[in-house]
Structure formats: C-alpha cells, structure tokens
Specification:
The chain contains 5 helices and 31 strands. With about 450 residues, the protein is mostly beta strands.
C-alpha cells in the first residue's frame, strides 16, 4: 500500500538500499484477494537464498482495544490472509476469513511455529494485554513512525522476555532507506520525523530458515537507521539468550558506530547498570539542551517543541544543532541572549549544543509552547538537569556534554550489583548524530 508496486518495492530494498532481507507488510484492510495473490507470487519471485531473502507477510491492523497493529510474517509461501477487518475493500466478511480480536488470530495460529506476529507502533499501537510469546518473540522499538522505547519498557515491566527489532513502514516504496518526509494522505499530509530503522540478525546463512531461527531466538538488535554493529557475550551466550548463573555476570561488549558515540549504557531491566558517559570528562565550555518523547501512544503522538532559549548574565557564541533529522527544522540565533528553535519529535531526540560565555550567575530559561523552566548553569556541575514535560515520556535535558567516546566501544562489564531473580541486560548506544542502537536483552536468572 502507498506509493509504488511490489516490483519497485523489492528491487529498491535489494538494489538501492542493499538490504539482505525484507518483507512487504501492507495494511490488511487495504489488501484485496487479488493483491494478496500478487504479493504471494512476488515474494517467491524475489526470494533468492544467499543473495536476497523475502518473507511473506502483512500488517494485521486491528484497533488497539482489539489488539493493535501486529506485523504477521510467514516462514513459507502461499499462506492465507486473516484480516482484522475489510474496511477499504468492503466492510463485509463474506468468506469468513477475518480474525478479530487478536485472540481469535492466536486461536487460528495455534500449534504453528511457522508464523510470527510482531507488535508494532503506528496508528494503532500493539496492545500487550493480548501478548502471546509463542508468536511474538520480539517487539518493535523504532520505525519511520518514530522511536518507541516506552513500548519495549512496557512489555519488559510486565515480566515478559522479548527481543528487539526495528522496521521501515514509510509507505513510500523505499524500504531500507526511509528518510524523514511528508507523504500525501486523505485530508492533507502525513509527516514522518525520523529515518526508518534496521533489524540486524546473527544468522548462520542468508536464507529464510536461518533468519527466522535467529529472530525466534532473539539473536538480533535494532538501530534507528544507521548500520551500527554490536556484539554482546556472556561466556558462550549472546544477546537474546536466556540462562541461569550463580555468580555475577561478565559481559564482553563491542559496538561500532558510523560516527562518534555520544552516550553508551548497559541496561539492567528498566534501569542503567553502567554508563560509559559517567567515566568520561565533561566539556564545561559547552552546554547541550535536548528534548524527546511523544504526547500520546496513538497516532497523534507527534510533539511540537517550538520555543526560545533566553540567557541572562551570559552570551551565546555559537550553536551546533544535532539529532534533528528532518529538513527545514532549524535553530535561529537572534542575538547573544536569544535563540529560537523549531522542532518536532516522535519519540526521537532533537537538540543542540551551546558554546557560550558564562559566570556563576548565568541563567538559562527555556520557553516551549505555553511552558517554561529555568536553571543556573552552575547547577550543571552536579550533573544533568531533567525537566518532565508531560505526555508519555516528554522530557527536556541539559548538561555539559561528555568528551567524544569515539566510533568504537569495546569493554568488559562485571555487574556486582545484580539481584537474585530474572534480570534483562541490554545495550543502548547513541551516536552524536542521534541515531541509536538497542540490543535484544540477555535474560539471566541469577541464583545469588
């Protein structure tokens, strides 16, 4: 659905974006029987083991109360489509093939190991009240719709053990190279603020079964659109593995960025177990100010951050914008004491660094919308300042940036603070351009 044809879709993924594997995921309520038959044939045509792997699939697009968006993937060919409903191809369900709510789809797939249903955040975010680990070994943390770390944290807080993937979903026939854009829709334009994401898997060979088994085993990780490399091991275990130990875990971690890595975290469950940033000296001549998050979990998630920065008892010398992926969204330095900014976020982070002359009396006031907050720059010597701005996870942060870590991070981490019970360990790395990597967790049962 959207722009283009299945041929353009798969050839773009293969020849322009240089992807190893892809799938076509049209919204079920827009897929006619004729379209589905065509997609079945195109997937078979373009699937070339060892060169380019295609999976058959579609998006089950039920409303959130009925289960929410889930991307259905099949291991084999010539599969039947079970839509959530037949909205744009006729409201009636004459053949009885529709399955809604999501629990009825689980009943349809019961006993099968050749189908996956990955919870997705788009217009109708996946509802974890319906979560079924038999069909959902991973959840989506990023797509062209934005970054949704809150989505993963939600399922983790419920005690489930999923892995992490990312996706494109840009509806413009550019899988693998989906850049921020606006696309025409009913009643106007739909704006996408971020680049589409990537899923990386540790597979034995480039074929369906190997990729399928790797995702089912959670041997995979996600990025927000750059081809970052990650390896996490604990002895002979790798990311996604679930195992039991009786002594504190020792992790060997290696991450390669496509540019400098600004922030690096080892996460334990919902909290930071180790931050490489805390071990780095800070550049106190500069101050970063950044904002992120979403208003709500549903379609109207986008947040406008238009506002001003006012400086008292100090002067801005220069401004370096970062993390703002969308064209046309810029900061404007009006004077040494006034800066305007214009930005929108969909779970991602935008921001800038200020090079400024300051004293112990320098005050920065941030105005956004009808809100504002102020702080003295000397407060940043004690650590970063965070200002909660409502919504799901809307937040403004300020601080002195850590010195550049470099493009590569290689370290060994021993967690002597692990608590008995199940612990999820995952890596989060953020580059200077704002692109982020999230690894699927290791799930470690520590006996203590």
């Amino acid at each position: 659905v959207g722009t283009g044809t299945p041929d353009l879709y798969f050839t773009f993924a293969r020849d322009k974006a240089n992807m190893d594997f892809s799938a076509w995921q049209g919204n079920d309520f827009q897929i006619t029987d004729e379209t589905w038959a065509d997609i079945n044939e195109k997937v078979k045509e373009y699937n070339e083991p060892g060169k380019f792997v295609c999976f058959l699939g579609y998006e089950w697009s039920g409303t959130t109360p009925m289960g929410g968006d889930h991307n259905i993937y099949f291991l084999g060919d010539d599969q039947k489509i079970h839509r959530s409903y037949h909205w744009q191809i006729g409201m009636e369900n004459q053949d009885g093939s529709a399955r809604s709510p999501l629990s009825s789809l689980w009943e349809e797939f019961e006993g099968r190991n050749d189908v996956m249903a990955i919870p997705h955040v788009g217009g109708r975010y996946g509802n974890f009240d319906f979560y079924n680990p038999d069909f959902s070994p991973v959840v989506e943390i990023h797509s062209h719709h934005g970054s949704f770390e809150w989505f993963f944290l939600d399922i983790l807080a419920r005690g489930h053990n999923p892995g992490i993937i990312a996706a494109s979903d840009d509806h413009s026939c550019r899988p693998g190279l989906s850049f921020p854009t606006e696309v025409s829709s009913r009643g106007g334009f739909v704006s996408f603020d971020v680049k589409g994401g990537y899923t990386a898997v540790f597979a034995e060979t480039l074929d369906r079964k190997s990729i399928w088994d790797a995702i089912k085993a959670r041997h995979c990780y996600a990025t927000s659109g750059e081809r970052m490399i990650a390896s996490v091991a604990c002895g002979d275990k790798i990311m996604g593995d679930e195992f039991r130990i009786d002594s504190p875990p020792i992790f060997d971690i290696y991450v390669i960025g496509t540019t400098g890595i600004k922030e690096f975290y080892v996460m334990r469950n919902l909290d930071v177990a180790f931050s490489l940033n805390d071990t780095r000296p800070r550049d106190e001549s500069r101050i970063f100010i950044e904002w992120s998050g979403v208003r709500v979990k549903s379609r109207a998630k986008k947040t406008q951050w238009n506002g001003t920065i006012r400086i008292e008892h100090g002067t801005i010398i220069s401004v370096d914008e970062y993390k703002n992926q969308k064209r046309g969204k810029r900061t404007e330095l009006i004077s040494g004491n006034l800066l305007k900014f214009n930005s929108s976020t969909s779970g991602d982070t935008d921001g800038f660094e200020l090079n400024m002359i300051k004293t112990s009396e320098t005050v920065i006031t941030i105005n956004y919308g009808e809100n504002q907050f102020s702080f003295k720059t000397e407060e940043l010597s004690h650590g970063n300042i965070k200002h909660f701005a409502g919504g799901v996870n809307l937040e403004i942060r300020a601080g002195h940036p850590p010195m550049n870590i470099g493009n590569n991070v290689e370290l060994q981490f021993i967690d002597g603070n692990i608590e008995p019970g199940n612990n999820a360990y995952w890596i989060k790395a953020i580059q200077t351009d704002g692109h982020t990597l999230w690894t699927s967790p290791m799930y470690i049962d520590f006996s203590g």
